[in-house]
């Protein structure tokens, strides 16, 4: 039993030293945070920190949720823009296919005209027409007016 008393008295003295050290550190912490040493109890002091840390944690979670929502909205907007662009491209390609058919026909005519100009065929035909019109007499020549053809027939 004497061993128990010596061991427990030694342990008790160590606990008293640790308690005094904790009180000193607590009073230094109070001074550091601008509180009065005699009025503030440890429960009240550390309760303030607990409340702050809970509010901080909630704010962090709110910010994370806002960031996720913003990223989701941006992703959705990008997807909508891509879909719109794809639809526009498809619409443009459909219109291009429709216009391509008519453009090929027109393009073929244009190419034929360019070929005729290069080869001189157009001028040969025009010269023949010019010669034929010169051969006609003045009475047979058509009068160039803006009247309708039916009106000219009546006179």
Structure, described:
The chain is mainly α and 155 residues long. The protein has a domain at 1-100. Helix content is 84%, strand content 0%. The radius of gyration is 51 Å and the shape is rod-shaped. Residues 104-135 form the DAD domain. Residues 1-82 form the FH2 domain. It comes from Molossus molossus (Pallas' mastiff bat). Residues 53-89 form a coiled coil.
Topology:
Elements: H1 2-32, H2 42-119, H3 121-135, H4 149-154
Key words describing this protein structure:
155 residues; mainly alpha; 84% helix; FH2_Formin; FH2_Formin_sf
**Element string (H = helix, E = strand):** HHHH
Low-pLDDT regions: none
Strand content: under 5%
Tell me roughly what share of residues is in helical segments: over 70%
Number of strands: 0
Average pLDDT taken over every residue: 81
Shape: rod-shaped
What is the rounded distance between the termini?
Answer: 153 Å
Estimated structural class: mainly alpha
Number of helices: 4
Characterize the biggest β-sheet: none
Radius of gyration over all CA atoms, rounded: 51 Å
Coiled coil: 53-89
GO biological process, one term: positive regulation of canonical Wnt signaling pathway
Pfam family, one: FH2
Protein name: Dishevelled associated activator of morphogenesis 2
């Amino acid at each position: 039993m004497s061993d128990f008393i010596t061991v427990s008295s030694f342990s008790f003295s160590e606990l008293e030293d640790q308690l005094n050290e904790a009180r000193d550190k607590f009073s230094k912490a109070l001074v550091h945070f601008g509180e009065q040493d005699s009025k503030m109890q440890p429960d009240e002091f550390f309760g303030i920190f607990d409340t702050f840390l809970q509010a901080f944690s909630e704010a962090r979670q709110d910010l994370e949720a806002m960031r996720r929502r913003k990223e989701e909205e941006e992703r959705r907007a990008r997807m909508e823009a891509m879909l719109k662009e794809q639809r526009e491209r498809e619409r443009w390609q459909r219109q291009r296919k429709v216009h391509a058919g008519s453009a090929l026909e027109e393009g073929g005519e244009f190419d034929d005209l360019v070929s005729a100009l290069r080869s001189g065929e157009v001028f040969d035909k025009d010269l023949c027409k010019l010669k034929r019109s010169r051969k006609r007499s003045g009475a047979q020549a058509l009068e160039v007016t803006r009247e309708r053809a039916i009106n000219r027939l009546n006179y």
